[in-house]
UniProtKB/TrEMBL annotation:
<keyword id="KW-0808">Transferase</keyword>
<dbReference type="InterPro" id="IPR022742">
    <property type="entry name" value="Hydrolase_4"/>
</dbReference>
<feature type="compositionally biased region" description="Low complexity">
    <location>
        <begin position="298"/>
        <end position="307"/>
    </location>
</feature>
<feature type="region of interest" description="Disordered">
    <location>
        <begin position="295"/>
        <end position="325"/>
    </location>
</feature>
<protein>
    <recommendedName>
        <fullName>Serine aminopeptidase S33 domain-containing protein</fullName>
    </recommendedName>
</protein>
<keyword id="KW-0012">Acyltransferase</keyword>
<dbReference type="Pfam" id="PF12146">
    <property type="entry name" value="Hydrolase_4"/>
</dbReference>
<dbReference type="GO" id="GO:0004144">
    <property type="term" value="F:diacylglycerol O-acyltransferase activity"/>
</dbReference>
<feature type="domain" description="Serine aminopeptidase S33">
    <location>
        <begin position="69"/>
        <end position="270"/>
    </location>
</feature>
<comment type="similarity">
    <text>Belongs to the diacylglycerol acyltransferase family.</text>
</comment>
<dbReference type="InterPro" id="IPR029058">
    <property type="entry name" value="AB_hydrolase_fold"/>
</dbReference>
<dbReference type="GO" id="GO:0016020">
    <property type="term" value="C:membrane"/>
</dbReference>
<dbReference type="Pfam" id="PF03982">
    <property type="entry name" value="DAGAT"/>
</dbReference>
<feature type="compositionally biased region" description="Low complexity">
    <location>
        <begin position="314"/>
        <end position="324"/>
    </location>
</feature>
<dbReference type="InterPro" id="IPR007130">
    <property type="entry name" value="DAGAT"/>
</dbReference>
């Protein structure tokens, strides 16, 4: 029997921690080219207090190519994560070369929730090292022994590294100077150890791994679905990290960057840098997974595996799919709303949310009349306003008020599909916000998956046709005759909540609709060609002959933004037996539509009694409270 080849790179045992490591998030540290963690060991005690901390050791004699290294580590991390409680998050921490490993591993491991990257080496090919690096291993031995000391000013600020030795910032200057001198002397053995873990042949191979890793990872950055925190040193002289950070923040779908002033490449070794505190400051630390739906408990997962070792529970990075995704932290929700300009939009339209109590039919302010989160599948069905500004406002409000993420079914074009390949950057801030906060491409399959999982789904039957209305269609419902979504809701016994939104169509003047633009000389032919390349959302069972799907927006003039109002009607229960009766399904479909029309009628009538329905009085009132209090509205 052939002997099984041992992994070339290996995970270290967990470091000791209090509380017990088994209750903490798993964090796997991926080292730089030294392969040992030498550049980050000062951070380990503080990290081990918050994480179940593992490291990766790369043997100096190993010559596994980058792709093989990723495969080996992916298997080991997956095996480690398979035994975890499914509520425990999994982090990857990659420094320099380890940043390349982390980005490659994240694409393979669905169990990984979050990445922390410190001066990741994605910019290696734009640094001097592809040219200069191959010369270093060929240095004479006596010069190579001095190489770590010679390179130390590039790797880090020696004074900042030695400052760890200062006993107290309050000590007299003379004592601080003595401590600093001893700290510099203590650095010499650390720098010399680099020569031991990186003999010339190993350094040559690790530089080749950097080249391979950068070439493999950079073209696939958009495939990294996890949330990413980038920490880079302003004065990194090894690679251009400060200029690389904005590029990565744009290329990665869910990344944010923080440039650390005065810090260098080996910033984790410098005094005053506390990585665990930085992660917490950025609201990037989560001790438990908070998903849109819970993972199976360990016993259930083991039973589902049929006696085999279960695969690790998936993390919360299934963005853009009907899989469970991680709820954002308050800081992440705030940042995302700001980046998508949603906070500014919300301030302009000051949305009012009302709901209807099912048993009494009484309308009330707030969302108190809705089914409680976790009480079973819910399908929210409503109207699209002109240009479809409804979904992001609803999703954000539900997260803030109920800690519940609505899973919106959005047109593929809104999520970046179309003439270009799907790309989070191409979809713009709006599409990126939708996908990050629960949206999936609208399709029968995705709706089926969401309802089967018990998630709250958000559907607009009118689709893009209703969002891009023609003249004289103000607040009109333009729905297909087929009642497929009702049949699907019945299959899972989902509660249907009809709702309506108004305000957007009072904020613009429709000057020319699709028909006018298509009839215009020159521009009409161009628009027709562009529209033919658009992605259709109504396919398969969703196809509707009576509704022409067009992605040509009308030409509008803007008026002062009207206040937005959302009303959720009385919840409508369904039953699987109803779904088997065609006449009953059609009747239920009519009830849902009637519910939306009733909500529209109520809002259009009642908003006239809102003293702050107009922009200037509303802005003046809210400004008088420093933006911390919303203007009141009509009494329901």
């Amino acid at each position: 029997m052939p002997r099984r080849r041992q992994p070339t790179a290996s995970l270290t045992p967990p470091l000791t921690a209090t509380p017990p490591a088994s209750s903490l998030p798993l964090l796997v540290y991926l080292p730089g080219i030294d392969g040992t963690g030498l550049a980050a060991y000062r951070q380990f005690p503080r990290l081990a207090a918050r994480f179940d901390l593992r490291g990766v050791f790369l043997p100096p004699q190993d010559r596994t190519p980058f792709a093989g290294l990723v495969e080996s580590l992916a298997q080991q991390i997956e095996d480690e994560a398979a035994g975890l409680d499914p509520s425990r998050p999994v982090y990857l921490l990659g420094e320099s070369f380890g940043g390349l490993l982390a980005l490659a591993l994240a694409q393979k491991l669905s169990c990984v929730d979050r990445l922390v990257l410190v001066n990741p080496a994605t910019s290696f090919d734009r640094s001097p090292w592809p040219s200069l690096g191959p010369l270093l291993p060929s240095l004479p031995p006596e010069l190579y022994r001095l190489l770590p000391v010679a390179l130390s000013p590039l790797l880090s600020n020696p004074i900042a590294m030695a400052a760890h030795a200062i006993s107290s910032p309050a000590a007299p200057p003379q004592q601080q100077a003595v401590d600093l001198l001893y700290g510099l002397l203590e650095l010499l053995p650390e720098l010399s150890s680099l020569r031991i873990v990186l003999p010339p042949e190993t350094l040559s191979w690790r530089l080749e791994l950097l080249r391979q890793g950068a070439a493999e990872v950079n073209p696939t950055l958009k495939k990294v679905r996890q949330r990413v925190l980038l920490l880079v040193g302003e004065n990194d002289m090894v690679i251009p990290s400060a200029s690389e950070a904005p590029r990565l923040a744009r290329a990665l779908p869910r990344a944010r960057a923080r440039v650390l002033s005065g810090r260098s490449h080996a910033l984790l070794q410098e005094a005053g840098v506390d990585l665990a505190a930085l992660v917490a400051e950025e609201d990037f630390y989560v001790s438990r997974r908070r998903l849109t739906r819970p993972n199976k408990p360990p016993a259930a997962a083991a039973a589902a595996a049929g006696g085999r070792r279960p695969r690790p529970a998936p993390g919360g990075a299934a963005f853009g799919t009907p899989g469970a995704i991680e709820l954002p932290t308050p800081g992440e929700l705030h940042r995302a709303a700001k980046e998508a300009n949603l906070d500014s939009f919300r301030a302009l339209v000051s949305p009012v949310f009302l709901s209807t109590d099912g048993p009494t039919g009484r309308v009330q302010l707030g969302l108190g009349g809705l089914p409680a989160p976790g009480s079973g599948p819910v399908l929210f069905v409503g109207n699209h306003q002109l240009f479809a500004p409804d979904m992001p406002l609803m999703v954000e409000h539900f997260l803030r008020e109920r800690g519940q993420m609505l899973r919106g079914l959005a047109h593929p074009m809104a999520l970046g599909a179309g003439r270009a390949s799907p790309d989070p950057e191409a979809s713009g801030r709006f599409g990126r916000f939708l996908e990050t906060f629960g949206a999936v491409p609208v399709s029968g399959r995705n709706l089926h998956a969401l309802l089967a999982a018990g998630e709250p789904a958000l559907l607009y039957p009118g689709g893009v046709r209703e969002a891009l209305k023609l003249r004289n269609e103000r607040y009109a419902l333009i729905w297909p005759r087929r009642a497929e979504f009702v049949r699907m809701a019945c299959k899972f016994g989902a509660t249907i909540v009809p709702f309506a939104a108004v305000g957007a169509e009072d904020s613009v003047e429709l000057l020319a609709d699709r028909r006018d633009l298509l009839a215009a000389p020159l521009v009409g032919d161009w628009l027709r060609r562009q529209n033919e390349q658009s992605v259709l959302a109504r396919r398969g069972v969703s196809y509707s002959e009576e509704i022409e799907e067009s992605f040509i927006p009308p030409l509008v003039g803007f008026k002062p933004p009207a206040r937005f109002y959302f009303l959720f009607g009385a919840p409508i229960p369904t039953d699987p037996r109803v779904g088997e009766d065609r006449a009953a399904v059609e009747a239920l479909y009519g009830n849902v539509r009637h519910g939306v029309e009733g909500c529209l009628s109520y809002l259009l009538r009642k908003r006239d009694s809102d003293p702050y329905k107009d922009l200037l009085p509303r802005l003046a009132y809210e400004a008088s409270w420093g933006g911390k209090r919303q203007a009141p509205t009509f009494k329901p």
